[in-house]
């Protein structure tokens, strides 16, 4: 046997088998000294191979408290020693007794993630605020205390709601994101189509704050702001951002919704693309199921949590159970301190519908949107209708709008328009004087569907929607002191098109009003302004145009000549 064949055998066989009969025969032709040399060479090669291989990734079961009863998870997490490491992230979350059923699983998973990458988790398990602030403001107090007490080696704070989990144990995507934005003080995901009491610019449930005086001043300002006695931190941050408090817009980086958070459908990507799953607005039973499974996978050493199957199954179980449910149902974390049981049942159905629609199951989505709307249409006429919050009615509006949009995309325009009309009627019947935020949303939805009707050449059906939208906006102007001039002008512009053939005089008057407002609020180069001027110039006729209007008409014609390619 050749020397190299013997070496090959030595490399392939484990060391303990070298003394076996086969290995002894393979080495018979070699002297004892040569065998010893080869064994030493093989040991060296094995050592080099181990150095070349990446170390095995491990999830620390003790960091997730995998070996204690579920009810003791939060206590186990609190007893762990503080890690060390320069520039590390301190994750701050709150898990009061009201949310412990699911918050303890999420906290255990997030603590395992933190220890995996050398970070730290702080869990505030205290009672909800009893000092006049809204219950949801407790996390701001916890974040403030963490900022004041943090050691020098903490570089960032991650404010994380108790209904969110970090899903990727293979790569620290949060630190990677921080490195991509070296000038940022705040990293936060945008909230497209979300709202609490106000339309949301960002989802404040997951936020990164750089450690330093600027972010501490921000959190101090929020903690001491009177708005937290009547509203939530997400709305307060939106208001401060819009007011550009201490150049907040300059220091805030808005990320895509799923870069560091979730959209309305909580799980839409694998952990490598969506590192945090945030089940905002979901029923508590769904949160318990998903986070318990996340905890199980973490304790099993899984490095990329696969939760979408559990999520969809939990949504379906929750929705199907709600069809005949009589026991209490809860969604913690809402503005109306607790939601009514039947409102929760409807929201369960709508959450499932949204997920099914996202994954292409239009038939299933249509069924569950409809199931939720059946009950919602009874709410405004209930003897005890005051038990329904504005948030309940907003969810009904969003669900009806989603279903109408989905049906319209399938080509069933008549069904879509009928449902849109029902949705608008439901919204208007629910719009009590105190629900001014809902009134604003009703107006926006009416304008959207009126525009859709116009595009379908159904001007007569669009007209009442435009008129109702204008009425709602005038109520908002009178009762909420909101700046709705531009929205009113757009509604007037749409109504003008709807009545163009039936009442050209009213259409002309409406367009004149719209053009005045557009000129005040929009840049001179605005396409929207140009189109309104073109319609007005056409309606007036050349004999009635003033010199200024004639020049506007000429300018509009010139604009169209250059903007629209000529057809050969």
UniProtKB/TrEMBL annotation:
Gene3D superfamilies: Spore Coat Polysaccharide Biosynthesis Protein SpsA, Chain A. The keyword Signal applies. Keywords: Signal. This is Nucleotide-diphospho-sugar transferase domain-containing protein. Residues 1-19 form the signal peptide. SUPFAM superfamilies: Nucleotide-diphospho-sugar transferases. The keyword Signal applies. InterPro entries: Nucleotide-diphossugar_trans.
């Amino acid at each position: 046997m050749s020397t190299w064949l013997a070496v090959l055998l030595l490399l392939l066989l484990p060391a303990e088998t070298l003394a076996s009969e086969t290995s002894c025969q393979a080495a018979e032709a070699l002297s004892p000294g040569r065998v010893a040399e080869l064994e030493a060479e093989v040991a060296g090669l094995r050592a080099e191979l181990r150095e070349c291989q990446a170390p095995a990734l491990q999830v620390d079961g003790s960091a997730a408290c995998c070996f204690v009863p579920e009810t003791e998870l939060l206590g186990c997490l609190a007893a762990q020693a503080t890690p060390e490491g320069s520039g590390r992230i301190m994750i701050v979350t709150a898990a009061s007794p009201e949310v412990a059923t699911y918050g303890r699983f999420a906290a255990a998973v997030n603590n395992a993630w933190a220890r995996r990458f050398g970070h730290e988790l702080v869990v505030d398990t205290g009672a909800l605020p009893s000092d006049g602030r809204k219950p949801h403001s407790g996390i701001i107090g916890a974040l403030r205390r963490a900022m004041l007490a943090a050691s020098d080696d903490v570089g960032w704070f991650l404010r994380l709601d108790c209904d969110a989990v970090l899903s990727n144990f293979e790569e620290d995507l949060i630190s990677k994101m921080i490195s991509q934005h070296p000038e940022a003080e705040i990293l936060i995901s945008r909230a497209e189509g979300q709202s609490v009491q106000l339309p949301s610019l960002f989802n404040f449930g997951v936020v990164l704050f750089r450690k330093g005086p600027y972010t501490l001043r921000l959190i101090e300002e929020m903690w001491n702001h009177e708005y937290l006695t009547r509203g939530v931190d997400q709305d307060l941050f939106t208001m401060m951002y819009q007011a550009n408090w201490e150049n907040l817009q300059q220091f805030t980086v808005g990320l895509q919704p799923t870069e560091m958070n979730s959209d309305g459908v909580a799980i839409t990507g694998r952990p490598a693309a969506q590192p945090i799953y945030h089940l905002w607005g979901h029923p508590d039973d769904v949160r318990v199921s998903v986070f318990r499974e996340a905890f199980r996978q973490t304790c099993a050493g899984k490095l990329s949590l696969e939760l979408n199957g559990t999520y969809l199954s939990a949504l379906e179980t929750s929705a199907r159970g709600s069809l005949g449910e009589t026991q209490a149902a809860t969604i913690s974390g809402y503005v109306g301190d607790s939601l009514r049981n039947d409102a929760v049942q409807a929201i369960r159905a709508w959450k499932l519908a949204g997920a099914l629609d996202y994954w292409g199951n239009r038939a299933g989505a249509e069924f569950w949107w409809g199931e939720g709307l059946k009950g919602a249409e009874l709410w405004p006429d209930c003897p005890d209708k005051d038990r329904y919050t504005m948030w309940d009615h907003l969810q009904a509006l969003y669900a009806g709008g989603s279903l109408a949009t989905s049906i319209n995309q399938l080509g069933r325009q008549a069904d879509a328009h009928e449902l849109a009309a029902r949705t608008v009627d439901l919204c208007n019947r629910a719009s009590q004087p105190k629900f001014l935020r809902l009134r604003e949303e009703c107006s926006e939805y009416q304008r959207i569907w009126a525009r859709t009707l116009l595009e379908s050449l159904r001007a007569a059906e669009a007209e009442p929607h435009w008129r109702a939208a204008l009425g709602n906006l005038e109520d908002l102007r009178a009762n909420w002191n909101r700046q709705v001039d531009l929205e009113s002008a757009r509604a007037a512009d749409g109504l003008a098109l709807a009545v163009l053939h039936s009442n050209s005089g009213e259409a002309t008057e409406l367009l004149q009003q719209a053009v005045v407002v557009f000129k005040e609020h929009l840049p001179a180069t605005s396409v929207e302004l140009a189109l309104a001027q073109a319609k007005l110039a056409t309606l007036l006729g050349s004999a009635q145009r003033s010199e200024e209007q004639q020049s506007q008409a000429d300018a509009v014609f010139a604009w169209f000549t250059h903007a629209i390619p000529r057809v050969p």
